[in-house]
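Now for one record:
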Amino acid sequence: DSLNELVGAVPMVNSRLLYYYPRPDQAHSDAHGIAPHADYGILTLVAQDQIGGLQVRAKGNQSWVDVEPVPGALVLNTAEVLMRLSNGIIQSTPHRVISKVAKERYSVAFFVAPDLDLEIKPWPMCVQASGGQALYDPCSYRQLVQEIFKQNYQS
């Protein structure tokens, strides 16, 4: 039952093999392979190659930190739904990929997101632990994604 409460009846789980072009010689040193963003779902697991380029930004910090590749290790990025469920105790991870070198880069990302119609609302224990006030109104995952798209793409 607990897992069903977290992801719903039909969770959205997918993997992507990501390819990044080599950085052209004339490109700026922080040319994006993927622009800064936070993932929408619950969490993302990333397997990097040895080239690197993944960077994260901690809450309240405007500088980017390299996530050095570790053979056999996975990177876990927390996402928007987990931030809302935890009432902000767990923050979503802003991240980007930069093309550091003139070599191809690959990574594999495994995304876990809830059912589109699952109601996303802060867990009561997290509301209590964070001062007693819910920071997020309840909404479906579908509504959350639509709102993020509207914020990102509305001109």
The mean pLDDT is 88. Residues 141-153 form the longest helix (13 residues). The helical segments are 2-7, 80-85, 124-129, 141-153. The first strand starts at residue 12 and ends at 20.
